[in-house]
Amino acid sequence: MNRHDLALIGFGGVNRALAEIIHTRGDELAAELGFTLRVVAITDLRLGSLMQSDGIDLGVVLRMGAGATFAGFAGGVAVPQNDYVIRSTTADIVVEATFTNPVDGEPAVSHVRAALESGRSVTTTNKGPVALAGAALNRIAADHGVRFEYEGSVMSGTPALRFASEMLPGTRISAVQGILNGTSNYVLGQMETGRTLADAVAEAQALGYAEADPTADIEGSDVQLKVVILANEILGADITTADVERRGISGLTAADLAEAAAGGTRWKLIGTARRDEEGRVIATVEPVALPLTHPLAGISGPTNAVSFDTDLLGTVTVSGPGAGRIETAYALLSDIIAIDAHQRAVAGATR
Ligand code: HSE
């Protein structure tokens, strides 16, 4: 049976959840998918680095206590040697799940570049490298005959990018519009019930939806990165965050929300990328008072949704989780499945 060896860069919630899925469901997945998965390297700021080309015992790693490091393991050290591990691992797929840096995407951009240049495919849930260096990284992947996959950079494991590319062939997509941040949507819902913005944000942090710095959720910069990704990936644009006009929800008051409800509308933080008549892509992030009949108006809590405006099918909307460790780890699994399918297709074509 085919096998993929993985190097996990970052071992926080998301990659840990992927390790749990492989550990508890590996045999079931192999029977369904026709390949097995092994983790042969892990690097993490707190744990250090571990490389075992015969496969790491995930049960042991997942049981490590607080404050433990990889120093006592064969092939382990207490310091995270990300670049060394990425370039020398025996893995064929590098799984990048470090924090999102919205300014320059580092260190994730360097991690992805090093992996692709050394002939490994990459899956990431990290918005930074995709939004800020996606075109360059895709070129490096193509030059090296490997894949760069990032389904989880928008709407976690809910298919958005692959839904558009694989489920809507033959129709033209002219616009993409969505509720792309669970925290702000949750906060708006809580404010509708009379809670303050500060209380609702604190709760979203406790529930694990919010970014490390929740300003990114509330002021729209998280959605801005996702709109860049959607515009470039689905509308074939070549925009950066500076091209996306942005306004968050901090200016909305409880009175605004009540007034909207009385008038049959509901405020939502909406990310949009639209091709105008001249073919230019216009992208925005802003609060919009939607009529209750709008497909995005009923999306509540931390749920995300994205609508695609198409010429042959009208508007198609996909909704589902946009955050969460298992949900985001599922995006990585779906990318690994896509990488495997691509490799099989190439092998089949060259036989
Ligand atoms: N903080 C983000 C959200 C997580 O609330 O949607 C996923 O990008």
Topology:
Elements: E1 2-9, H1 13-33, E2 35-44, E3 48-51, H2 58-62, E4 76-77, H3 82-88, E5 93-96, H4 108-117, E6 121-124, H5 127-143, E7 148-149, H6 161-167, E8 173-179, H7 182-192, H8 197-206, H9 215-218, H10 221-234, E9 244-246, H11 254-262, E10 265-275, E11 281-291, E12 303-310, E13 314-321, H12 325-350
Parallel strand pairs: 1-2, 1-5, 5-6, 6-7, 9-11
Antiparallel strand pairs: 2-3, 3-4, 8-10, 8-12, 10-11, 12-13
Bound molecules: L-homoserine.
L-homoserine binds next to helix 7.
Short description:
The protein is an alpha/beta fold.
Describe this structure in words.
The protein is an alpha/beta fold and 351 residues long. It has two domains: 2-157 and 326-349, 3-Layer(aba) Sandwich (Rossmann fold); 161-321, Dihydrodipicolinate Reductase, domain 2, CATH 3.30.360. It contains twelve helices and 13 strands. Strands 4-3-2-1-5-6-7 form a seven-stranded mixed β-sheet, with helices on both faces. A six-stranded mixed β-sheet has the order 9-11-10-8-12-13. A hairpin with a 5-residue loop joins strand 10 and strand 11 (281-291). L-homoserine binds at residues 181-183, 209-211, 217, 222, 322-323.
